[in-house]
Amino acid sequence: MSEEVFLSPKKRGRAAVLISGRGSNFMALHDAVLKGRINAEIALVLSNKEDAPGLQAARERGLDSLFLNPKPFASKEDYDREIVDELRRRDVDLVCLAGYMKVLTPFFCREFKNRIMNIHPALLPSFPGLNVQQKAVDWGVRFSGATVHFVAVEVDMGPIILQAAVPVLQDDTADSLAARILVEEHKIYPEAVRLYFEGRLEVRGRRVFIKN
Ligand code: GRF
């Protein structure tokens, strides 16, 4: 059986950013858009938390921003169906998860296959899940870092697009390590989205090839 191949589109795209909190990665993406480094516009910033500081920042930046309360929905899939409707209404090409603390349902992953990215503050496949900077310190690993990957149904396990490594220092705390990793996150996430809309990301099975 031949392997399924996906090539990202070369076009001026429309991206949505899903957040739950601070939103520093969303702002790094938007800054890159404003500087013309990414051939896309941010068509929507959506949060599942009403008081997410990133949502306030999106409003201040004049972006289409939406709080969607999960509580009234009967199931996780119903909630995700509503998000997918909002994305389709805005003709969104790419969904960027940026500190979005809900696990996407298989329905959402299917509807936007190869069109959802996430940023994770560790070198996957090491340390998936939560509190990963603390786990890196506790394990005594010498390097950690950040990973941008496509989202698959298995959490934090989709094809890896870009990674950046940082040293873990003897006197690091989870916070000091998180701060060092965050600097790299703000570089590699915009870079991955730039490559996406330049039509340069080719997904073959679990590997992503960067063309040209
Ligand atoms: C980042 O560390 C990101 O890697 C993780 O959640 C954090 C979000 O930070 N998924 P921010 O909201 O983008 O500032």
Termini, distance in Å? 27 Å
Can you list the ligands bound to this structure? 5-O-phosphono-beta-D-ribofuranosylamine
According to CATH, the fold-level topology is Rossmann fold
Strand order of the largest sheet: 4-3-2-5-6-7-8
Assembly annotation: single chain
Helix segment tally: 6
Secondary structure tally: strands: 10
Mean pLDDT: 97
In the CATH hierarchy, what is the class? Alpha Beta
- The CATH level-2 architecture is identified as 3-Layer(aba) Sandwich
Q: How many separate domains make up the residues?
A: 1
Query: Helices and strands: which structural class?
Result: alpha/beta
CATH superfamily: Formyl transferase, N-terminal domain
Query: What share of residues is helical?
Result: 25-40%
Helix/strand order = EEHEHEHEHEHEEHEE
Strand content: 25-35%
User: In one word, what is the shape?
Assistant: globular
Structural Rg: 17 Å
Give the low-pLDDT segments: none
What profile does the largest beta sheet have?
A: 7 strands, mixed
Can you offer a commentary on this structure?
The structure is a single chain. The chain is α/β, with parallel strands linked by helices. Helices cover 33% and strands 25% of the residues. It has six helices and ten strands. Strand 9 and strand 10 form a beta hairpin. The protein starts with a strand and ends with a strand. Bound molecules: 5-O-phosphono-beta-D-ribofuranosylamine (GRF).
